[in-house]
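subagent[fold] <- orchestrator: predict structure for attached chain, return tokens only, no commentary.
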Amino acid sequence: MTKETENRKAEHLKIGIAEDVQFKEKTTGFEKVGFKGVELEYKTLPEMDKKEVKLETSFLGKDFKAPLMVEAITGGVKEAKKINKDIAKACEELGIGMGLGSQRAMIEDPLLKDTYFVRDVAPTIFLAGNIGVTELGKYSVKELEKAIESIKADALAVHVNAAQAAMQPEKETDFKGRLKEIKKLAKEFKKPVYVKEVGHGIGFETAKALAKTGIKAIDVGGAGGTSWTAIDSKRGNKKVGETFWDIGISTADSIVQCRKAFEGKIIASGGIRTGLDCAKAIALGADLCGMALPVLKAQQKEGSEGVTKLLEKVIEELRIAMFLAGAKNLKEMRGKAVVKN
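subagent[fold] -> orchestrator:
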């Protein structure tokens, strides 16, 4: 099982880096397409100086210099060690958060812990561990706490991925009773627990159900960025992969639906590519924004320096977008969106 998990992670990295696995027709919903999309209220006289824009925020007890985190990408294979440390170093420099890939591999083989461990280069940032929802019945709360403590993470993200799982050749598609398990984990776990989709969105009914479990946040992982049905169909279920390539709820719709159903923190992820996307997400109700694929590609090209340059650009774009909307802080940015139907 350990070797199978490692091979799966290696294949995910290889396909994600080398092939075009973005959604084909479905978009994040942030862009303007005809009369559809999300725009910001533009104030040509914002009555403020751009220098007044403050991006600082907090999330699950940790301070952020900007409302941004690098989403879970990898762990559990030898290539992951450098990838994670390069990204973590950049996040530490910029004062933003980071998520790690599923820790299933290191639970199965503790020798893989060093492919996840980044505290030597990122001692202060918010760091999230990760486990799949279908693993909750396999590992005890104590085992999961041990995994989190061993990498000194601040929280545990439980990833939910029915669409992706349906494409995987491993056929791990038993999602019965998972809400109950999430509720148990959130109640008993020593550190905050939140739920994240991997890239196909979370809708109102699911968010409403999650609101009753005691989790601290939802990461919407909306459709419009990387399609994990595409990645895993390329690994084994090619016959139906094309049919479900674009399945899911757009990122913008996911934010709106989750905000209506859930009072906790919301992370906007799924196709976030610019600071303008972040600004729109915050205007719709998100607290943080997450990015993954562009960060991985920047790391592959220029290492930690490339990641830093990319994220600095995104942060500056967010600052400009807030200035143009006349918002001095994230609270003032709420509601600055114009939704086109």
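orchestrator: received. Logging for downstream: Residues 2-340 form a domain with the TIM Barrel fold (CATH 3.20.20.70). The chain has one domain: 2-340.
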